[in-house]
Amino acid sequence: MADKLALQMRRRSRLRYQLKIKSGGRPRLSVFRSGRHIYAQVIDDAQGRTLAAASTLEKELREELKTGADKDAAVVVGKRVAERALAAGVTAVVFDRGPYLYHGRVKALADAAREGGLSF
């Protein structure tokens, strides 16, 4: 188990380092997924604050979806975080997938955020 977590930490730090180099001052769209929920937030690392966030824990989403963390939920969270980021004045972000592969729920969230108006 410790080896698996160590590998996750290495992947996360490797990706974060590359994003820091290539971001060009843009905020990052960070994704976290658990077994039950999926979370997304737009973070401005220069100021150290969250500009927009959405997750399946929100009451309206839980009532609307009736499920936890499937692809449909990821699509709804992606659209919601994109609309909140646009309201905060953010149009371009870098996508921080963390230690997760760009596949399944993570890809669905990213595609929905692109459809919602974010560019990355």
Automatic annotation (TrEMBL):
One of its GO terms (biological process) is translation. NCBIfam families: L18_bact. Gene3D superfamilies: 3.30.420.100. Keywords: Ribonucleoprotein, Ribosomal protein, RNA-binding, rRNA-binding. InterPro entries: Ribosomal_L18 (IPR057268), Ribosomal_uL18_bac-type (IPR004389), Ribosomal_uL18_bac/plant/anim (IPR005484). Part of the 50S ribosomal subunit; part of the 5S rRNA/L5/L18/L25 subcomplex. Contacts the 5S and 23S rRNAs. The gene is rplR. Belongs to the universal ribosomal protein uL18 family. This is one of the proteins that bind and probably mediate the attachment of the 5S RNA into the large ribosomal subunit, where it forms part of the central protuberance. It holds the Pfam family Ribosomal_L18p. This is Large ribosomal subunit protein uL18. HAMAP family: Ribosomal_uL18_B (MF_01337_B).
